[in-house]
Amino acid sequence: TQLLEQSPQFLSIQEGENLTVYCNSSSVFSSLQWYRQEPGEGPVLLVTVVTGGEVKKLKRLTFQFGDARKDSSLHITAAQPGDTGLYLCAGENTGGFKTIFGAGTRLFVKA
Amino acid sequence: GAVVSQHPSRVICKSGTSVKIECRSLDFQATTMFWYRQFPKKSLMLMATSNEGSKATYEQGVEKDKFLINHASLTLSTLTVTSAHPEDSSFYICSARSGHEQFFGPGTRLTVL
Prior knowledge:
The complex is a heterodimer of chains A (about 110) and B (about 110).
Chain A: E1 5-7, E2 10-14, E3 19-24, E4 29-37, E5 44-49, E6 55-58, E7 61-65, E8 71-76, E9 85-93, E10 99-101, E11 105-110
Parallel strand pairs in A: 2-11
Antiparallel strand pairs in A: 1-3, 3-8, 4-5, 4-9, 6-7, 7-8, 9-10, 9-11
Chain B: E1 4-7, E2 10-13, E3 19-25, E4 32-38, E5 44-51, E6 57-58, E7 67-73, E8 76-81, E9 90-98, E10 101-104, E11 108-112
Parallel strand pairs in B: 2-11
Antiparallel strand pairs in B: 1-3, 3-8, 4-5, 4-9, 5-6, 7-8, 9-10, 9-11
């Protein structure tokens, strides 16, 4: 069974601080997505990474896919209160159309 | 990105009644849609994979007779919670696959009294 371990599970930081969220697995994924979810809403896709070693930037967010496509990280620079939410990583397995979700990281950015 | 709608957004029903939730892909066709359940402050739990024109594939522990899924067209999947009970109260979210990516609906908050 493929597992995607996400850490930390909860993070409370001050506005302006930097943070990194990690997703790790012993399995290889064909692609990996990062989502952000606000309370009472569905997850919103932030980025998809496909190639090992790939780095994508979305304003203050930097996403990296590990060289072996087993892990990924999300780095937020100068966090703002608007970044508060649940961040989910999701990996698509190489054998088919199954997507594995991490447990999520609940981020709270204090003004 | 692609847009997925879900209806209703919120429903309150009495115990024993059945509730239907619709999931639509608005600007793309989706041969595969997924239904998730989310408990408060938890991640998504996959309930079933809905394939257009064929039977849904249910995850272990999910009762297929309790959660009926129909995927009759390339843009619509429905989840019917039959004979709902208070323990079925939850946030239900659907998603539709487009290429590598899944796009999620806004979710349906079900409360069973």
